[in-house]
Design a protein that fits this description.
Length: about 325
Amino acid sequence: MSQQRRGLGKGLGALIPTGPIVDGTGTVAPANGATGEPTGPRPIAGAYFREIALSAIIPNPRQPRDVFDDDRLKELSASIREVGLLQPIVVRSVGGGQYELIMGERRWRACQLAELDPIPAIVRNTQDDELLRDALIENLQREQLNALEEAAAYQQLLDDFRATHEQLAQKVGRSRSHITNTLRLLNLPPEVQLRVAAGTVSAGHARALLSLDSPEEQIKLAKRIVAELLSVRAVEEIVSLGSSKAAPKAARERQPNKPSAPGLVHLADRLSDHFETKVKVDLGRRKGRIVVEFATIDDLERIIGTMAPEAVRAMKETED
């Protein structure tokens, strides 16, 4: 079996101290810099990070979810083989070297299919989900993560700890649109994610790649970014032509022929701020279009609710 890819990003594992455990609480002293200020993540009472063998993990008998989509599991397993497990599972010790799953059974099952062993985990002693969530969000602001690790941490906080986009934005001092656009990086093919994690493709490049519909096109253009040292602007120009095979020069030559109107960029920026996501406003020869991007179904519902709250309210009343 080929060597498993590990260590490219561990999501919340990068934000939580590892052992040794002090007084059974998971509290450890942070590393201090020259000024005496902590340089690493702050200790989180009641939790610590470690890698655990698959055989030492048992499922939670109180898990309400008992049906897992086989195709989605296979997709996640393939991603784990390529990139590694970005989001650690959450477990609690039950003694005898065994751990019981609290969150992440789907990830645990996918790791079994991918034969990734051991796997990253947060070992939690406290039962206070809100306390652990808030501490991890606070550490997001302190720890320097690559874009993919940051996206994985955001996604895990949303999924496992029931955090909201607003909570993340307020706690880490980022805009909601930044949270949304960073989360979209997890939609890239594993091969492109690897390049983002390695730093050969920047987050700006990656966001431009997301405008391509085909994963194959995204992979081709990511390879060109590395081989030709393309700038983010050049990639955006290539993507605007709808093909990773187009040359940046051709894009620049064709761009002046596109009709433009004063204030379109300003209008797009205002709409982006209002809807808290990326909005494009294009004006063609005979008609124009507005493109509003979204990351998840929940994000789409939020945007529609902002655009037409009465329509959303009527739809919910009809469903009820």
